[in-house]
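User: Reviewer 2 asked us to show a designed sequence for the structure in our supplementary figure. I'm pasting the structure tokens here. Could you produce the per-position amino acids so we can include them in the response letter?
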């Protein structure tokens, strides 16, 4: 009989963790979206400064207009085709667009492949590669993947001075929380609260999640 109660309790905990991701995961992704817009602006501006890329800018805008009413699969194909043709910043944006569209369409395997490929490109600036790693980690969280695989994607982003560090820490802490590793999650949320580079919003979210972690730890500590 105790085994039945234990199984029911485990199911309830999993449902609660998934609920936490549903509530706060979109906030994490929302913060990350702002980064890609910033990256897009930087890449677009640098490309605009180079006369040879002015035509690429026009072609990219035409592509976005052309695929606006297409299905997700068609968008991905045309993004990839554009990325293969354009050896410039707009080609990179198209590659990100293909991976992002795959993720929005629920094709997480294709999205992960796309983001991992971008992260491995030695010709890209580190912020772009780091952003691709961040997006790959978000895909893995949505796949309910092993937390260690998520941590491997985020390892470089957690270096001191990395602008994406607070967001990466947020994602990894949530992954540990949902994978029943509350002690690791608690340590990361505590770091978030002490990080001067973390935004007030991310610190507020860390405080909320830290209370959830402490509530989860309380029964196990009482048992001990």
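Assistant: Here is a per-position design you can include in the supplement:
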């Amino acid at each position: 009989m105790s085994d039945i109660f234990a199984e029911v309790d485990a199911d309830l905990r999993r449902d609660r963790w998934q609920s936490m991701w549903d509530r706060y995961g979109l906030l994490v992704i929302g913060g990350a979206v702002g980064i890609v817009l910033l990256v897009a602006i930087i890449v677009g501006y640098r490309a605009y400064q180079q006369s040879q890329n002015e035509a690429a800018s026009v072609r990219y805008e035409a592509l976005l207009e052309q695929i606006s009413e297409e299905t997700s699969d068609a968008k991905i194909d045309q993004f990839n085709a554009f990325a293969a043709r354009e050896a410039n910043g707009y080609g990179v944006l198209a590659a990100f667009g293909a991976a992002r569209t795959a993720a929005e369409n629920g094709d997480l395997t294709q999205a992960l492949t796309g983001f991992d490929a971008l992260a491995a490109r030695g010709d890209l600036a580190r912020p772009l590669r780091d952003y691709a790693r961040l997006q790959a980690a978000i895909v893995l969280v949505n796949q309910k993947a092993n937390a260690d695989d998520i941590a491997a994607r985020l390892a470089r982003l957690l270096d001191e001075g990395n602008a994406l560090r607070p967001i990466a820490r947020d994602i990894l802490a949530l992954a540990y929380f949902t994978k029943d590793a509350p002690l690791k999650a608690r340590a990361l949320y505590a770091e978030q609260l002490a990080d001067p580079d973390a935004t007030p919003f991310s610190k507020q979210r860390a405080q909320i999640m830290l209370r959830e972690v402490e509530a989860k730890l309380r029964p196990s500590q009482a048992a001990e």
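For the response letter, you might also mention the following. The CA atoms of residues 10 and 175 lie 17 Å apart. Residues 1-9 have pLDDT under 50 and may be disordered.
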